[in-house]
Amino acid sequence: MAIHKSLPFAFLLILLAFLSFQAISFATAAPSITLSEVKALMKWKASLSASQALHSWSLPSANSTTNIISPCNWTGISCNILGSVTRISLPSVGLEDIVEVTEGFDDKYCIGTGGYGKVYKANLPAGQVVAVKKLHPLKGENQSDQRSFRNEIKALTEIRHRNIVKLYGFCSHTQCSFLIYEYMERGSLASILSNDEGAAQLDWTLRVNVIKGVAHALSYMHHDCTLPIVHRDLSSNNVLLNSELEANVSDFGTARLLIPDSSNWTTLAGTCGYIAPELAYTMRVTEKCDVYSFGVVALEVVMGSHPRELISSLSSSSRQDTLLKDMLDQRLSDPMADVAQEVLFVVSMALACIRPNPDSRPTMRHVAQELSIRGPSFSLQPFHAVTLRQLMNLKV
Description:
By secondary structure, the protein is an alpha+beta fold. Helix content is about 30%, strand content about 10%. It has helices at about 35-45, 95-100, 145-160, 190-195, 195-200, 205-225, 285-305, 310-315, 315-320, 325, 335-355, 365-375, 390; strands at about 75-80, 85-90, 110-115, 115-125, 130-135, 165-170, 180, 185-190, 230, 240, 245-250, 255.
């Protein structure tokens, strides 16, 4: 299909139209479309969330010789009287649209700040809400912000996972550069845990699911991509939650592709308190760096705050005798029944992930698989008497 783009000054909008026909997208036109292309369209439609389901699909007629479901009722799809797709015409979004709906990036639309710049909530003309990360001006070829900008684009255009935030597009210009993401209604995990009301809503079942979601995202990045991707800055600030309080890993500005047969040396990157200790002296990035960060985040979720004091004192024999129930987030009641066993297993796995020796840490594939199958069947009774030492000594 021929693709035609009309974009304002260097607006490199790479919106992935097939991910969502309700999303911001580029204009595409074709006089006709082949059967294989229809199948491809249907495959993308089927990959959308369950809430979008099949309600907008039209079934083939009774005398049809094909079982293919027509996409003629999809937004932006035009068909002839015979039901054949003749045109794909999806509305494009330009820089002026983003500037207009944020009133020139007014602070009242700002929902987050960081060293890279600010994040804004944007209500697009078509009705969709997106998050816009506006970076500082990208001046010079060697600016770290510019490298982060390119890293994030490269990483997020190559990966697709339900627990990784989706990149819809970007604009690259010396005066105004930004990235456009799906909007996460509940904000960051860190902000929720720091708020008593938000923390209370995040019950033990939801917290276990958040940890599982992050584990599955990292497992996909490490083991299911063409080249392994290491996030390098996993923290509770970079885990975003949607309206259903499901976890989405975000902020890939420091992500690295691991090249086989390469040393993969790197400069130190990450958030203090989440960085694997070996990076202080080796500067060699591996998947085990993300495993350590995951362990810290998992402990933070069950404790309700960063586990820095716990981590620094785990070598102490007396600290290992601490009861698990005493280190859990006291804003919640003790977990009940099967959920309690899942919490026990999550903590035991998290403790394995923060082992000082990276070679002794599990892989994220192992972590994700074990969290999926061993929760309720995992048994260590009674819950109120379990100590950290018992969990540290478990084979996970």
